[in-house]
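Hello forum,

I keep getting stuck at the same step: I have a sequence, I want structure tokens, and every attempt I make locally crashes halfway through. Rather than fight my setup again tonight, could one of you with a working pipeline run this one for me? It's a single chain of 480 residues.
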Amino acid sequence: MPTQHNSSPNPTETATGVRFAEIWHKGSAWILGPVLVGLMAIGLAIGSERMSVINAHLNHLHPYAPLIFMPIGFAILAYLVNRFVPGSQGSGIPQTIAATDSEENVHVGHLLSWRIAIGKALLTLFGIGLGASIGREGPTIQIGASVMHAFFGRGPFKSLESRRILILAGGAAGIAAAFNTPLAGIMFAIEELSKKHVFNANSSTLVTIIVSGLISLSLLGSYTYFGTTETYLAWNGSLFAILLCGTAGGAAGGVFSRLLILFTFNMPGRWRTFVKNNRLLFAAGCGLTVAIIGIYSNGLIFGTGYQPTRLSLENTATLPWYFGMAKLVATLVSSISGIAGGIFAPSLSIGAGLGDNISAIFPHMADHSAIVLLVMTAYLAGVTRAPVTSFIIAMEMTNNHQMLLPLMAASVVASRVSKFISPVPLYHKLSENFYVIPNSEINRNGHALENTNLVLDEGEKYSSKVKNQTDREADRIRNQ
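Reply #2:
Ran it on my machine without issues. Output:
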């Protein structure tokens, strides 16, 4: 009788194969992923500088040229966002928060994907080239989260917790690479992206931030975002300056947040209907408004505002008295237009303009650079309601550790003042626009069904379960 051979796999070989596959997937996610995040952040940074130069050339063609190309450009960008890359509008941080907070049976491909990452980068660069008052830092967060989320569903990355860790690590690495501020990346993940969840700064998250930061450092060199300032503010004799700057910056940031939330959620019925039915016309009107403000300001408010902010910090130029408020309005209009672009860099620029105003009103209160830096930090804290992230960004991006305590105090004051004006944090309120899409509403091709819109108008109600959860979370955040 012939001998029968047992064809069942060797348990040892099977365990070894599974272990090898797990190591391969983990290595790909925590090594290749951060490298890709760093490279995309560098590409966005270099591209942003190039597009700023292109914008300057466009504005030099004719003093009134922006009145023509900006409305057309805004309309084209809004069309591209809605037609080809829905979910890429705005800064991208609300989308990242919504994806982080989503439940296990929820598809988040409409918020984080390779298409979103590439489209977001290109659309942001084109927006900066047009002169929209936007920045690249927020988009870098969504791009980083999208890159890391691409590893979800492979190997050991199949649980809800692993998806959140990937998204948090990608978002933190994105902001760390964007500002060259690794510590701020960790704090942003704690303060903003994981407000509803416990953040564990485990080795994987740290590796992601470190590797992406090293990629940025190796290709761009050791640099500080706004150069280096040696300004100093004596803690014991500058309490009034700290309180004034913190209050003013926080109030302005709270007003900006309140206005952006108002235009997003609480527009009058007829106006909301008009915008919904005429998105491209509305975007063109926003572009025309920014163009008018830019022409009036001799082009200072166009783009990120990086150059005038740096000059003000270095005491090498005096900004016009209207710069801060003009930049605020231009940033608000750009944000509601429906195009892609962040508000981090413009917020710092707005703070610099307001700080310049305070320094002019109280010339002997403190050093000009110190006042500007304080208000920049305070305004950013007022907008984001992330005080720790704000003062760490300000400290790291200027390489000024002497101002740590004043910056810390001003950002805390600003965050509390902003809360009185705008109770719910901006990014978390905006994340309500990007509601969850249950797996039952995803067709076999992985696309959302036509009746699932990404952006909800105030009168359009989605499932009562999701809305009740959102309302309870809003109440919890208000009471924090």
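The chain has two domains: 25-220, 235-427. If your local run keeps crashing, start a new thread with the error log.
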